[in-house]
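Quick one: structure for this chain?
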Amino acid sequence: MKNKLVALLLISAMALSFAGCQGKKGHDRSRDRDNSTQETVDEKVLAEAKTVHDVSYLIEPYDNGLRYSECKKDEDLYFYFNLLKYDEYIKVNVEGQDYLLVCYSYSSYGLTGTKITGVEKKVFDGIMHIEVDLKTETKENEGCFPNSTTCRLILKLDEDIRDVVVSDLNYQEYDGGYVTVCNKMGILDKDLNFVVPLIYDDIFDFPISDNENDPVYYRVCINGVGQGLLDENFNQVLSTSYYNLYYYNPNKYIAMIEHKNGSDETEFEIVWIDGDENVIKSVPGFLECENTSNFYCMDGHLLFCDPTYGPEWGKGVMDEELNIIIEPIYYNVFWLGEGHYNVENFDHETAHFSSTGEQTTDFKPS
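Got it. Here's what it folds into:
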């Protein structure tokens, strides 16, 4: 159940500070989420669900796209499509008959699918090959991308299969993934049992390195509370008390804590914590999210802000032991590579700084 959700976040200031999403190569656990029509229920019902079947009645099936079914009693099967990624299939049994559920996306410039007129399926050496016949009509493209038509297929299985190919695209059997029910997220295993209960508002892959063989952690979020971490076996690593988490090793993390005071103002603290969440060191300041620091800082450095600096937040750079490299008194900081930063002050003048924080040129107009 490994993932390949990769996102490049170009961040200006704080807009994405509380939500990062980047994953490793492999199996993508992410799913389309369209929950606008899901009803609100007691969160206890969601949290206590043991299997997706306990809450399947709450999963509003997608009403966009086309559907083709060889099962007469198929209404109870529609929710499965909310679980499937575009290159996955799942096998189900209805009254003793096996069925294959699979999605197919038809893409074309200038055309869109309007009706599924037929589905051809052939099995060779345990592999089911599927071709979808579509009635199409002209449609102007929106932007640079082709028109896309989603086709959801419920097909009778008359023999065992071990693989599926749809229009020359290889599909994988469903092996678990994210699921959203009534705006709460959890994680299912391949047998549709919850390995992470429906208690979080967001879950993201949290790869700890670029090495595909390293485990993927999961960043979990509860709105108004904070973010935490689960390990690859879905055990809690860090409680949901933090924001903008950085992993260094199982006994070292950098994170930010929010402190609310009586006047509804928020104070921010950057902390270095161990695996038991003991604070080794802390400094005041707003810690930018991982993707921002990776974009603006050399390896091992972190971008942070001083909310108390003048009329605007000053930006600076610190190392992984919370030592200040560049004071947080500047409008912006950019990593230039080769041991240099380009630093812009609030007069929009720039100067070069070394990776040790030494200013190497005078500030000049940009």
